[in-house]
Amino acid sequence: MKALASLYNQQFKTTLAMMFQYRASLVIWMIGQVLEPLVYLIVWTIVSSSSGGSIGSYTTADFATYFIVLMLVNQFTYTWIMYEFEYRIREGLLSLALLKPVHPIHSDIADNLSSKMITLPIMILIAVGLALFFHASISLALWSVLLFIPALLLAFFLRFLLEWTLALAAFWTTRVSAINQTYFVLMLFLSGQIAPLAILPSPVQVVAGILPFRWLIGFPVELLLGRLTRVEALTGLGIQVAWLLGGFIILRIVWRAGMRIYSAVGA
């Protein structure tokens, strides 16, 4: 554990130094993180205003609050491993990582957390500005805030495990862009990114509850906004834990299967 802690500490320092060197790339990435929920925010606030000020249980101000909180939750849980793993295998970078005495996943976790340490404070300032501009309103209950913290952490690790596992498809196919696009389309509709799940058709809500997507983004947002009862919140946390354990087991199985067929290429 002491060696692992030292590894994470060093990786944090390395990643932070790299991100400060590539400030322009960081700014471009953050713009992308803000623009998508901002577009949905504008669309749904306009639709709500033209429909008498509300759609279902969401008022115009509720839509603004929902998408601003969603922007922060998505930023905290977002990973980029699905875009990189194919390149690592094709260029032989994974072979170098396998020479290290620790599993490559630890480096990716440290990288991801380091980026959030830099970007999250800026994203919070952007969220405050958007909340003032769009007149968002939020009433927080202490119990929902307290449960939101573990829900957000579970969402991050669950999303990380899920996307790291899907990235391992690169062991069997040289191009994984089709798999990535399918995943992100499902994520868009079933996680609550394109619209609150509560205003979507019932079949979509059922599917979203069965699959892991809602528990990655939509559930923490709904929890913080007080749209869940305490029983629903605790049930959701239990589902997150169950998916996390299942995801860990699946990851180990897929990783071992991938290692059996992997052959070093590239550098």
What is the compact description of this entry?
It contains 12 helices and 2 strands; from the N terminus they run ααββαααααααααα. The chain has helices at residues 2-21, 23-50, 60-77, 81-91, 93-98, 104-133, 142-167, 177-190, 202-210, 213-216, 218-224, 230-261, and strands at 54-55, 58-59.
Output the number of helix runs.
12
Low-confidence stretches: none
Provide mean pLDDT, rounded.
88
Count the beta strands.
2
Question: What number of structural domains do the residues give?
Answer: 1
Global shape: globular
- What does the main sheet amount to? 2 strands, antiparallel
**How far do the termini sit from each other?**
31 Å
H/E series, N to C?
Answer: HHEEHHHHHHHHHH
What is the beta-strand fraction?
under 5%
Q: How would you classify the helix and strand content by structural class?
A: mainly alpha
What would your notes on this structure say?
- The chain is mainly α and 267 residues long.
- It has one domain (2-261).
- Helix 3 (60-77) runs antiparallel to helix 6 (104-133).
- The protein is 77% helix and 1% strand.
- The chain has helices spanning 2-21, 23-50, 60-77, 81-91, 93-98, 104-133, 142-167, 177-190, 202-210, 213-216, 218-224, 230-261; strands at 54-55, 58-59.
- The longest helix is centred in the last third of the chain and has 32 residues, at 230-261.
- It contains twelve helices and two strands; from the N terminus they run ααββαααααααααα.
- It has a two-stranded antiparallel ribbon with strand order 1-2.
